[in-house]
Task: structure prediction
Amino acid sequence: MRYKVLTAAFAATMAFDFAGAAAAANLEVIHWWTSKGESAAVSQFAKAFDNDGHGDKWVDSAIALGETARSTVMQRVLGGDPPGAAQFNPGRQYEELISGGKLLDLTDVATAGKWDEVIRPKAIGSACLVNGHWWCVPVNIHSNYWAWYSKPVFAKTGVPEPKNMADFIAAAPKIKEAGFIPFAIGGDGNGWQIQLLFQDMVTEALGVAKRDEMYTKKSAEIAGGPEMKGVFTQLRALKQFTDNGYANRNWNDTTNLLITGKAGLQVMGDWARGEFAAAGMTGVKDFGCMIGLNEDKPVVSTDGDIIVFFKQGNADVEAAQKRLAVLLISPEVQVAFNNAKGSMPVRGDVDMSTADPCMQKALKAVEDPAKIVTATNRFITENTNQQLNELVAQFFADDSMTADDATAKFATIIGNSD
Amino acid sequence: MQKSWRQRFHLPAVIGTIPMILVAVGVFVIGIGFSVLWSFTSSKLFPTYDFVGLAQYRRLWADNRWLVSVNNIWFFGLMSITCNMVFGYLLAVFMDQRIRQEDLFRSIFLYPFAMSLIVTGLVWQWVLDPNLGLQETMRNLGWSSFSFAPLVDANTAIYALVVAGIWQGSGVTMAILLAGLRGVDEEIWKAARVDGIPTWRTHVSIVAPMMKGAFATAFVLQSVGVVRVYDLVIAMTGGGPGIATSMPAVYVIQLITVRQNVGQGMAAATMMLLPVLIVLALAGLVLWRRNRVQEAGV
Result:
């Protein structure tokens, strides 16, 4: 009798174990969220997934620098060993993964979760909704169109806080005299930070409509026009106010120059705010923000991050992948993640009462469709993107290259882009 | 006289080299074949067989970064090979003076070659970084106007790479040339001394020509190192500032992995192969002619 009970208990445990092992899965997620603010944010995802009640486990693969992380993912896919999930920026970076049939179709969970209704603005959802199927989960909205400045540096120098880039360039010599680095930037990863600055300046100079026309029609005429020459001239002016340690610096070390009161201003997406927040600073008294590089022309862009899931040929793993997808977009996880990250949630039905003055500016601008800038990545492939990186970084590093020369090269790249 | 098949191909030798032959054919010939094949296609992320002729080559030679890379490799190659040979030879001569602690010195000079370039490149980057390295140290010591930051200036970064290349390569050149020097018969030195020839003259006119083999080995080793230089650039500058220190190998990897443009990357790889093939063909021709002359002599 006793023997029988034990056997039954043993069998029950076995069955339980077996059921548990069959349903739960470890998912490796490759991303490039490696700074202090970013890792605080991504740990919210990991925590939610580890505690989802199915025994799943988030296996974190953080790889510093976007282009390195993305190329690692591509090599893994080509080698037939794709990770469970991976981060990309919304746009054309993963279009060949979709057409090559490498991604898990999320349409069933998206329909069940009414993603097409809760995700706003529509432009964010359209990065994942291709040919009527959902191929990825948008997790945040980042705007690349921000300049951040250190309030103490401006106060100590005695110059008024800037309202646009022209203001700043006029004030920069005084900041330099006072012993600060006026303009902080970094040149790592093929110069992507310089291109981010450049793209912000392009939109400010051309206006949203003309800029969109240039990228959609691949217009070499607009790309070679006088406004573009003006952008390159301004870029050269800004270069003179940087320090010579910029060459290999990453973005969060650059933000750190502002946090520690060594530098005046940085142009960076709003993930920089996550870095300020992780250092315990607030947007009220420690740092200021200039939306769209010009307070009179506020714009926000629909950049950000999306997560793709790779086909694994295993029903249990794919079920876990879909559980993670649902979790990433759930209201609680969205709030926790985006508060730490400094980004806007992708759904409009969440509580944003804790937003700081900078976020308020963005939330106001995002209501007006004319003030929404489509992310540059939507128009151009990674190939063109890197060509632009190289041109802008070369121009920034090499003072002997003229603005005319750079404008002509820019027009050639845009005209030949695919 | 024609040699028989058996004399030319010794069976145990053939069996012994089969693994090497398989690797050479499998990895090199087939791999290179696919590279060349894909360079004529419009392959992007995934290789395809959509042939587009020479379009990728036209795009390649219109790409600013590739042109900069080609210029850089010539400059880097000429500078570092010349300096390595000169310094290597001088070091070898110095080591050959029956100095004390020769083993110790040899280890010290060989050390840079034994370590991973990723590690040493990173150390170089830190030493030359204006905010952490030499410049900051000197300024903290009180020399506030001290300025030395070659890596962050587009015009000087390539020189910093050359210096690191010399630091890494001259030790191994020394080791090879030292072996060559030791192989020269002591009697020749004695004879030269009896004839009253100055030492430097003996080196230049007698000993150096006798070390042809050692020089050739060192030269080939250096050249191979130059063509595939990658890790040094990645660790020290990442190809920057801007694109100032890009090299062909860096370009190829960048195209294939980051830019997702396999076709153009393969075109660049094929262009890298071309000069190597020409040199090999020339060497083969010389060897073949010499063999024919020898066989005719027999």
